[in-house]
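User: Could you go from structure to sequence for me? I need the amino acid at each position, not a summary. Structure tokens:
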């Protein structure tokens, strides 16, 4: 039997949840059954990680952001690789792939990783990308929503339920389950960040963009320190356009001695091992990949009650939930976790059970492969 040829298409200019999802997926396809390649519009960190994993990568970075010559190059790539399935991720990849594949009779599937309204702060930018997305949906065959919350949005936008499958992002749990490394990671990173080994450390991992609500987190931490005379620390792992504003906020609140900016890092399992609690402050989240990573690492979670997060963070069971933007409630929840080891341990166990039953990479890969086969002739 010939192999199923699958081509994924993504911008790939950054390394976020969508990129990690593709890397997990294509790395675990059974090689005897699937031949896979990935088209990236940028030759960056994501492309190099794919190559390191032995995945074929086509980069189209010689063209400008919306250079129409990209259409011809993309169509040439489609015709050369001859995929049985084209699977796209992100507005730009969706738009160009739907146009480039017209007339090719290849089923085109799109994974919806986020809600566009929260991805684009500028009303003009949002209007443009919405037109690009909705104006080309007629050429898309099927949608994979990474949460029921995102599937609901698609249905509200007029996409029939029969054209939507909800498949949670899966992850390789093994890097987060290597318990023998935890003590070493904790000591090493706390030394690097100049944080006492016995201090209670709150952490988050996020892109520094408005939708992540990081100023709310900093305000909540300031309240915790002020109202409870707390000696806790906070580390923010990540980078982005809001970093300068966040650093200014920390200085204005007089928190320089207790807040650390760790920058963009690739050793996220180690960073989580250094933390005593993970705090998620987003205004919206399609699923919440970093929360799942924290839960897999047995780090207790405080999270915004938004989007796909509602589907696996259950209050006082798998984590504590607060309404988005409520810095007072977030501060109180953080304080509860800091003082109650019993609460932390109870939630950690339930959270790990939830992750292992719902978010494994094997389960995700199995469901996506099954979906692909439904569209084969």
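Assistant: Here is the amino acid at each position, in order:
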């Amino acid at each position: 039997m010939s192999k199923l040829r699958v081509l994924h298409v993504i911008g790939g200019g950054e390394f976020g949840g969508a990129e990690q999802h593709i890397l997990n997926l294509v790395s675990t396809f059974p090689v005897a059954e699937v031949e896979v390649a990935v088209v990236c519009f940028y030759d960056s960190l994501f492309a190099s990680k794919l190559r390191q994993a032995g995945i074929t990568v086509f980069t189209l970075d010689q063209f400008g952001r919306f250079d129409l010559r990209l259409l011809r190059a993309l169509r040439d790539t489609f015709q050369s690789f001859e995929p049985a399935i084209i699977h796209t991720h992100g507005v730009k990849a969706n738009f160009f792939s739907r146009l480039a594949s017209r007339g090719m009779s290849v089923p085109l599937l799109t994974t919806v990783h986020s809600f566009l309204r929260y991805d684009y702060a500028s009303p003009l930018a949002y209007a443009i990308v919405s037109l690009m997305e909705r104006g080309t949906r007629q050429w898309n065959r099927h949608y994979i929503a990474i949460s029921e919350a995102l599937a609901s949005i698609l249905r509200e936008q007029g996409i029939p339920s029969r054209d939507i499958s909800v498949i949670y992002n899966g992850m390789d749990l093994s890097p987060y389950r290597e318990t023998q490394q935890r003590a070493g990671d904790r000591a090493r990173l706390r030394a690097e960040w100049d944080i006492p080994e016995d201090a209670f450390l709150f952490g988050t991992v996020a892109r520094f963009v408005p939708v992540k609500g990081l100023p709310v987190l900093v305000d909540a931490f300031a309240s915790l320190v002020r109202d409870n005379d707390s000696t806790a620390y906070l580390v923010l792992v990540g980078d982005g356009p809001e970093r300068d504003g966040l650093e200014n906020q920390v200085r204005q609140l007089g928190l320089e001695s207790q807040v650390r900016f760790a920058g963009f890092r690739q050793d996220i399992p180690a960073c989580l091992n250094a933390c005593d609690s993970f705090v998620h402050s987003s205004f919206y989240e399609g699923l919440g990949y970093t929360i799942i990573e924290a839960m897999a690492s047995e780090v207790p979670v405080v999270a915004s009650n938004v989007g796909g997060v509602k589907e696996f963070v259950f209050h006082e069971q798998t984590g504590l939930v607060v309404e988005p933007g409520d810095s007072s409630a977030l501060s109180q929840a953080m304080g509860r976790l800091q003082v109650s080891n019993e609460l932390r341990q109870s939630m950690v166990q339930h959270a790990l059970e939830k992750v292992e039953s719902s978010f494994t990479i094997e389960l995700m890969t199995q469901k996506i492969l099954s979906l692909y086969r439904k569209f084969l002739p």
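One structural detail worth keeping in mind: The chain has a mean pLDDT of 93.
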